[in-house]
Design a protein that fits this description.
three-stranded mixed beta sheet, 1 helix, mainly beta
């Protein structure tokens, strides 16, 4: 069975499809998945982005790290609420 990463009630990802996640800037997270596209230099051109709130991307990343570490084999890995405000995931060019 696959694991799910539940960021909030609107954003649930298949954790096994995420190859990498990081902050894009102070306000935005980016998630690279198995369907992300890369250019000839291996630079990402398509990935999922998510607003985290003004200056809160690092806090959201830390919350995701903590959730995965706390429940490495759980069916649903749930990110706890914090001072960030996750927006909707958008599949976009970056």
């Amino acid at each position: 069975m696959s694991q799910r990463l539940k960021i909030n009630n609107y954003n649930v990802l298949n954790l096994e499809e995420i190859t990498c996640y990081q902050t894009l800037d102070a306000n935005t997270m980016v998630f690279y998945v198995t369907t992300s596209a890369f250019d000839s230099n291996e630079d990402p051109i398509l990935a999922f982005t998510m607003a985290a709130g003004t200056g809160k991307a690092d806090n959201l990343k830390k919350a995701i790290d903590k959730a995965i570490t706390a429940s490495p084999s759980g069916r649903v890995v749930e990110v706890t609420a914090g001072d960030y405000t996750p927006g909707n995931l958008t599949f976009t060019g970056i």
